[in-house]
Write a structure and sequence with these properties.
alpha/beta; Rossmann fold; 3-stranded mixed beta sheet; 10 helices
Length: 326
């Protein structure tokens, strides 16, 4: 059944996907983008898979139980290059203690907050089964050691995201986007929450764009309802600032990032800003605007379909928007 669904999905989206791939290829040329995936237990998010040949992938996973799956999940990948980092990333070089939870992806340097977690199903996933001490490095030091310049950071380290960012102050000066897990509730004791992450990245020149997914917990089951507990949040450099850089490769990479997240609005802003910059090639600007308009049309069409479905649902549940976000 899963295979059939994937086949139907590919057939339904193949025309658009082919158009988008062609446009991204025209924009990127021989340019490649460096993606630092901190907390890479399941490999990079699926949204990046169509663009692998343009990506230098750096996966960070210090838990040996999960690092094996990073290698396995990427075994058939076609990244431009691939590097696995097994050191823990932190705000400083030194040593950290990793709490190994029963569910490997719940493991964290922070201790699980059982007072909150036990209110919800399957709290045993967060049982600490062991602890290990690991050498810690910073993003900036790793970048220096690998002679790499990261363009995008994906962060999913169970409450320690802000600590990792504090060790990336040099890298943040040129980071174009950050896809980061943020918590609204203390899943781990004394962990930084969304407001602190938001303020830190805002000061670093990155704008909050959207929540790409919100996870809600109910006391009876994980059914997509209940309290907004944590989320994946997208922060991006303002496109007007990127256009001012006058650097062709930076502009191309930013455009591909927007394509990955299907942000037609940001592509149009980038294209408009590039059109006012005489040093940017007109053909590149034209491709960026064309891709932005194509994505915006598709998103608008999907939004209209969602609005129609919502109107039908509200006939039976008039106050549905009070506690369900579409």
């Amino acid at each position: 059944m899963a295979g059939l669904k994937q086949t139907i999905k590919r057939l339904a989206t193949s025309s658009f996907d082919n158009q988008q791939s062609f446009m991204v290829k025209e924009i990127m040329g021989s340019t490649t983008l460096s993606l630092l995936d901190v907390g890479a237990a399941n490999g990079a998010y699926d949204r990046w898979s169509a663009f692998q040949k343009f990506i230098n992938y750096f996966g960070v996973e210090p838990d040996s139980r999960s690092s094996k799956s990073v290698i396995k999940s990427n075994s058939s990948s076609s990244y431009n290059s691939e590097t696995l980092i097994t050191q823990a990333l932190w705000h400083s070089k030194g040593e950290v203690t990793l709490n190994l939870c029963r569910k490997p992806m719940a493991s964290s340097i922070y201790e699980p907050n059982r007072q909150f977690i036990d209110l919800f199903p399957e709290p045993e996933r967060n049982d600490i089964v062991d602890t290990i001490k690991l050498p810690s490095e910073t993003v900036d030091r790793v970048a220096q050691q690998l002679n790499a310049k990261f363009d995008v950071i994906k962060l999913d380290v169970q409450g320690a995201e802000l600590d990792v960012l504090k060790g990336a102050t040099d890298s943040l000066a040129h980071i174009l986007a950050i896809d980061i897990e943020v918590e609204f509730c203390e899943l781990y004791k004394d962990q930084p929450l969304f407001d602190q992450v938001f303020s830190f990245l805002r000061k670093s020149g990155l704008e909050f764009i959207d929540f790409t997914y919100i996870y809600r917990w109910s006391p009876d089951s994980f059914n997509g309802l209940g309290q907004a507990t944590f989320s994946d949040a997208l922060f991006i450099r303002p496109p007007e600032i990127v256009a001012e850089s006058k650097d062709a490769s930076t502009i191309s990479k930013f455009a591909m990032i927007c394509a990955v997240y299907e942000r037609g609005d940001l592509l149009i802003r980038l294209g408009n800003a590039c059109s006012r910059n005489s040093s940017v090639e007109k053909q590149t600007t034209s491709h960026i605007l064309e891709l932005g308009k194509m994505l915006s049309r598709r998103n608008a069409r999907t939004q209209r379909q969602l609005n129609r479905a919502t109107k039908i649902i509200r006939l039976f549940h008039p106050r549905v928007r009070a506690h369900i976000l579409h």
